[in-house]
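Protein record
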Amino acid sequence: MALTLADIKPLSQDKLTKFVIDEFRKSPVLGLLPFDNTVKPQGGTTLAYVYNRVTTQPTAAARAINSEYTAQETKTTAYTVALKIFGGSFEIDRVLAEDENGQVVDNVTFQLQQKIKATEALFNDFFINGDSSQNALAFDGLDKAIKNTSTDMTLNIDLSDAEKVKANWSKFTDGLRRFEAKFSERPTAYFVSRDAYAVIQSVADFANGFTSTKDEWGREVLKYGNAQIIEMGDKPGSTTPIIATDANGKTAIYAAYLGMDGVHGVAPTGAKVVKTFLPDMSAPGAVKKGEVEMVAAVAVKATRAAGVLRGIKITTPKASS
């Protein structure tokens, strides 16, 4: 069964749980990503999700009377992703419970919001950069799945200032079209850094095909065709972009077709992709702990369901003194 966070919200009876789900839904990635919530513990210390990734495409041909087709099978490769546990905790002193103005609720809500933001940022980082061979606590992300495939492309274009954007915007949109043509299904979303998002907004001033609307929270939703362009932000607790700009001023644009036959999330069985553990102010002890937690991973069901366009120059490096 595939669920989005929007699907999960009506299943939650608790008001605070619905608030938590809405906070996670504000993440454009988590808001769009469907989750296959079918993983059950099988013993041991891991939660494994096994699936087949399509690695060759089916063929078809004509045949003459009294002749046979040449047999060809679509090939798949078995992959296993291990769900990872991530989130964070916070602590509140019990003396806050004596405040008559509801300060406990306000503080719990505030701490939940901040911990959710950090958890979203960590999910986004894993979604792009996760590599379990480098960090055993991370799930594998798009960059690892894409590397050295037909959708791992380089454009080498300069959009580093207004004049370069004006001169090269058509080359950029042509590159996007050629990039999209490599996919088995058109991308649902592009994933970019904040700086790259600003540059794409400038390209949109010249190019057709871009549209801008508002989401339910009043934020801009920029699309190229039907694909939403998503800012990935920074790694949790830092100002380091999730999608980096290298020393030469170049960055990458990632893309994915989100769906159960493309790129989707994986979660344990049941409806709770996100869990909260709230402070119990009635229990003994001076300091009460609360937690926010996700158990999740990402599956890439087809090699042509995700891709990356590298070599997009968006800044001019400063000359060293």
